[in-house]
């Protein structure tokens, strides 16, 4: 079936754009390639639109496959009429198709099946007409010892079972009931009696109710998780009276007699026994899918922002994976991330070999000309930062904290084992921390995106959908930045358009055996890297020291001849064009428009000539947490602190303020104005200023605000915290706690 017009209407684009995109996708083109190098064909559709077309056409093709199976099944039963075929062919959703198919779908033995076996279907048909009949007399005719129908009531019950099934299989009833559940249904959660203590993290949902149509994804997933863990009971239904009224309007005739009364009983039975469970399951699947989509969307956007974090660049880096009892694992890395040295230092309790540790750090900084020190933000992170800063290192040496989420996953991975087979897990983790500072994208692609720590409910959502979305995000980020083919890891190359793990490995092996690539065309010598893969990948691969200047840029090799023509027309070289703004200003783009090349591509080429191989990521800036604030115990209401956004959700943003527990800035506290979507205000890894609003140490919860005057709305009952004179008791208590801390740190 031709779906181009349908998809075009849904996206608000022209059918020709959809058709061209589908043809390119079917031909093996990737989303990044299509959106970057086939703008004329698609009418400049962006990555999001191309990916949406890809996903929608797959969905509609799946619907077609199911439609064919349904038609075949009904035809084999000898029940396919022209009217039924038209209805099946016209079904635009999977739900509508399944409603039509339900009466013909092979089913297990039901109450209605048993009633039919007892010969009660004619009685059901007679009652379902809802004519005025002598009910007892009609039912009497079906009493039979052979068929185990011994009483009038047994006959009527069997007839009602059949009628219940008919109502349940009525496509119109199901469609309207589905709409009722969605529009008037309510999520209601209750704590399972006796589990109040165990389920304390779900306290908000112990007695909770909200409309299905407006329930946000994070609450839907939270309630479902609570139910799955057997802490909550969850219902998702409309008022029973509304549901019964809806069915009665569809089924009952305008009459009052014994047959109508029997049908009413069948309606109640149908709803409670068949329709309600069926609809509740369906609606819960629908709302779960919607919640999954929203959660995955947030996760993917967070991941994108993290991957595109500002790189420090090619610098000599010392990285420290901090710890108390087991010490701090320290590594020195060269400008390309190569491991030069590793050892452990013990600046903290219980060993407290501060002097020796300090000498080691200073000696290595000098020996390897260290330009930056990356410290993991886990246990002992802030203490290690304080220690390093106390050493009096040269001011030019940058000391900064690095988010180490997922570093332990990398350390134990096959990737890390292959790279450092003889090293301890903790040393590998330190290497990862250092490389993250140098180039977050190149290092984070080695870790399963789910382990990076920027999502929520990632284990509750559809895992296939999550993987596909995150893979798309990583691929988009990698190709958006571009990859230096001579230094990229296999993992980074894997995400380049058109490559994948096999070709990525082949590229690494080829450059190991033959030395660095000197041109893009040399890539064609890599085993199994054919013309199609080259077409898809070449524009995203960079060769820094290539002979041809365009090999260092994002200009695709298929357009080299065009650029050379531009240079020729100006009696200059390609390198001259790239170096001279004055020359580029003389290029008249419309003179180079052809059947395959339009102004969008020409403008991209001109932009690339101006800044060949430019990195779209922001410039690295050093960030410092507030000194002296290292744990939740150091926090006070009203404190203003610097922080880094670590995660964004539908209800707000989590911010690392350097106390080993992220704080939440609720949606209502992200700005002085009304904020509907947190992404309007914050991005992952953004540096922000926050005010401490709440500190709950037992529950490990910190409430933060980004408002300029967060306490104003609390009014007189909760004014800003004011400084006050300490009582003698408070002073003594303060001194006692400080003394205990000092004893713990330095001993008696």
TrEMBL record:
One of its GO terms (biological process) is nucleobase-containing compound metabolic process. It comes from the Bacteria. Residues 638-707 form the S1 motif domain. Pfam families: HHH_3, HHH_9, S1, Tex_central_region, Tex_N, Tex_YqgF. InterPro entries: HHH_9, NA-bd_OB-fold, Ribos_protein_bS1-like, RNaseH-like_sf, RuvA_2-like, S1_domain, S1_Tex, Tex-like_central_region. GO terms for molecular function: mRNA binding; structural constituent of ribosome. GO terms for cellular component: cytoplasm. SMART domains: S1, YqgFc. CDD domains: S1_Tex. This is Transcription accessory protein. Residues 713-732 are annotated as: Disordered. Transmembrane segments: none annotated.
């Amino acid at each position: 079936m031709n779906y181009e017009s349908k998809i075009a209407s849904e996206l608000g684009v022209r059918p020709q754009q959809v058709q061209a995109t589908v043809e390119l996708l079917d031909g093996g083109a990737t989303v990044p390639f299509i959106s970057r190098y086939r703008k004329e064909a698609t009418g400049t559709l962006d990555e999001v639109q191309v990916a949406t077309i890809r996903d929608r056409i797959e969905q509609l093709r799946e619907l077609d496959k199911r439609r064919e199976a349904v038609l075949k099944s009904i035809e084999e039963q000898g029940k396919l009429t022209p009217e039924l075929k038209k209805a099946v062919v016209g079904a635009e959703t999977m739900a509508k198709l399944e409603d039509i198919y339900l009466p013909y779908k092979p089913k297990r033995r039901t109450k209605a099946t048993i009633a039919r076996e007892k010969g009660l279907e004619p009685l059901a048909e007679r009652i379902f007409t809802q004519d005025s009949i002598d009910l007892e007399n009609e039912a009497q005719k079906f009493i039979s010892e052979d068929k185990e129908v011994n009483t009038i009531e047994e006959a009527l019950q069997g007839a009602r079972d059949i009628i219940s099934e008919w109502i349940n299989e009525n496509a119109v009833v199901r469609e309207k009931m589905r709409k009722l559940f969605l529009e008037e249904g309510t999520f209601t959660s209750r704590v399972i009696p006796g589990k109040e203590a165990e389920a304390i993290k779900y306290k908000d949902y112990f007695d909770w109710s909200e409309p299905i149509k407006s329930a946000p994804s994070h609450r839907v997933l939270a309630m479902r998780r609570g139910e799955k863990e057997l802490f909550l009971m969850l219902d998702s239904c409309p008022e029973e009276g509304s549901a019964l009224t809806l069915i009665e309007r569809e089924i009952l005739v305008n009459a009052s007699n014994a047959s109508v009364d029997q049908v009413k009983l069948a309606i109640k039975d149908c709803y409670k026994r068949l329709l309600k469970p069926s609809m509740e399951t369906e609606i819960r699947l629908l709302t779960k899918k919607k919640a999954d989509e929203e959660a995955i969307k947030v996760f993917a956007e967070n991941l994108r922002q993290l991957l595109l974090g500002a790189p420090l660049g090619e610098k000599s880096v010392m990285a420290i994976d901090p710890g108390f009892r087991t010490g701090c694992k320290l590594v020195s890395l060269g400008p390309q991330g190569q491991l030069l040295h590793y050892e452990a230092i013990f600046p903290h309790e219980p060993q407290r070999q501060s002097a020796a540790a300090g000498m080691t750090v200073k000696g290595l900084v000098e020996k390897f000309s260290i330009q930056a020190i990356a410290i993991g933000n886990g246990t002992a992170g802030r203490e290690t930062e304080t220690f390093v800063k106390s050493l009096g290192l040269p001011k030019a040496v940058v000391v900064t904290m690095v988010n180490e989420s997922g570093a332990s996953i990398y350390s134990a991975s096959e990737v890390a084992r292959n790279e450092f087979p003889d090293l301890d897990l903790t040393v590998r983790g330190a290497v990862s921390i250092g490389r993250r500072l140098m180039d977050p994208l190149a290092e984070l692609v080695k870790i399963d995106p789910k382990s990076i720590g920027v999502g929520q409910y990632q284990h509750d959502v559809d895992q296939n959908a999550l993987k596909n979305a995150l893979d798309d995000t990583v691929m988009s980020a990698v190709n958006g930045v571009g990859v230096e083919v001579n230094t990229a890891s296999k993992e980074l190359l894997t995400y380049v358009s058109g490559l994948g793990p096999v070709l990525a490995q082949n590229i690494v092996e080829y450059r190991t055996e033959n030395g660095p690539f000197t041109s893009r065309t040399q890539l064609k010598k890599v085993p199994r890297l054919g013309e199609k893969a080259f077409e898809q990948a070449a524009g995203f691969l960079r060769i820094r020291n290539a002979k041809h200047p365009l090999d260092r840029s994002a200009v695709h090799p298929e357009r080299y001849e065009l650029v050379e023509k531009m240079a020729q027309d100006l009696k200059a070289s390609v390198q001259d064009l790239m170096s001279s703004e004055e020359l580029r200003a003389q290029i008249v783009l419309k003179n180079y428009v052809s059947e395959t090349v339009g102004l969008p591509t020409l403008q991209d080429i001109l932009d690339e000539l101006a800044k060949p191989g430019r990195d779209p990521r922001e410039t690295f800036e050093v960030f410092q947490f507030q000194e002296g604030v290292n744990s939740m115990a150091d926090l006070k209401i009203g404190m203003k602190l610097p922080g880094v956004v670590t995660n964004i959700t539908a209800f707000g943003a989590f911010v690392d303020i350097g106390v080993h527990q992220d704080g939440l800035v609720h949606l209502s506290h992200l700005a002085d104005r009304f904020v509907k979507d947190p992404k309007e205000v914050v991005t992952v890894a953004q540096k922000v200023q926050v005010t401490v609003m709440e500190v709950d140490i037992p529950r490990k919860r910190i409430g933060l605000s980004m408002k300029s005057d967060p306490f104003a709305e609390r009014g007189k009952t909760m004014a800003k915290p004011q400084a006050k004179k300490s009582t003698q008791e408070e002073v003594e208590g303060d001194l006692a706690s400080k003394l205990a801390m000092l004893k713990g740190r330095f001993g008696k």
